[in-house]
Design goal:
255 residues; seven-stranded parallel sheet; 7 strands; globular; alpha/beta
Length: 255
């Protein structure tokens, strides 16, 4: 293998690190050229050194740090990486404890990073301040298409903030925000915006249904919701109205 070659992956999920193997891994990560890194389900004694090594690595495009007991300090370090890194495309930070401070730091990074396309932040105790900061940052982000924020104690104000974000953001096509405290009307508007973005990027609508955000009686309120949505959503395509989500509505009623 030449110095210019790039390995495919490092897969150490549920690996039991001790001090020696952790140091060897950290040193190796600084110089090893690899595209994919999965070290989920591990607890490290020197998380900051590992993250510093990631900052120095300029070949990794996909990183899985889920279930690694990362806190706010690590969230801030990851945000610093995202501010300068133009290689990472996908980042999984699920089931950590990034918290409000770490969430705000990552939000600030998202406002200047236009390389990352997928981010998983579910179950990180971001809170409403962290969620609000992320929603606001995405007004200025043009690369992120996939975002998971479920189970982060997000309040209704965060849902309203995302509605505002989607007046400017035409890039995000998948947003999972279930298991939070988002107002159902805002959830419907968010889902409609996702449909709009999927249409713009020629992506099928089917993948939005995971949110389960349409309440059982939402069709009784759909007229006023769509009238509100028309302020920032372009005309929805006719084929949408034959989709099973709107089986009783007529396309002509809203055009």
């Amino acid at each position: 293998m030449t110095d210019d070659s790039i390995d495919d992956s490092i897969y150490l999920r549920r690996y039991t690190f001790d001090n020696d193997t952790e140091k060897a891994f950290t040193d190796n990560l600084k110089r090893r050229k690899v595209k994919y890194l999965n070290i989920a389900f591990n607890t490290f004694s020197k998380e900051k050194q590992i993250l510093t090594s990631l900052k120095l690595n300029l070949t990794i495009t996909t990183i899985n740090l889920g279930y690694c007991n990362l806190g706010s300090d690590e969230g801030i370090l990851i945000a610093d990486i995202l501010k300068v890194n133009r290689i990472i495309k996908s980042l999984n930070l699920s089931f950590n404890n990034i918290g409000v401070i770490g969430g705000i730091a990552i939000a600030n990074a998202l406002s200047v990073n236009n390389t990352l396309t997928g981010l998983q932040l579910y179950n990180n105790n971001l809170g409403s301040f962290g969620g609000f900061a992320i929603a606001n940052a995405l007004k200025y982000n043009t690369s992120l298409t996939f975002l998971e924020l479920w189970q982060n104690n997000l309040c209704s104000l965060v849902g309203a903030a995302f509605v505002e974000t989607f007046k400017m953001n035409y890039t995000i096509t998948t947003l999972y925000i279930n298991y939070n405290y988002i107002n159902s009307d805002d959830e419907i508007l968010i889902n409609l915006a996702l449909m709009r973005n999927k249409e713009l990027h020629d992506i099928p609508y089917w993948s939005i249904t995971r949110n389960n955000i349409f309440p059982p009686n939402f069709q009784s309120n759909i007229v006023c919701i769509l009238l509100s949505a028309s302020k920032f959503l372009p005309t929805l395509p006719e084929e949408l109205w034959s989709h099973h989500i709107f089986p009783q509505l007529r396309f002509s009623d809203f055009n």
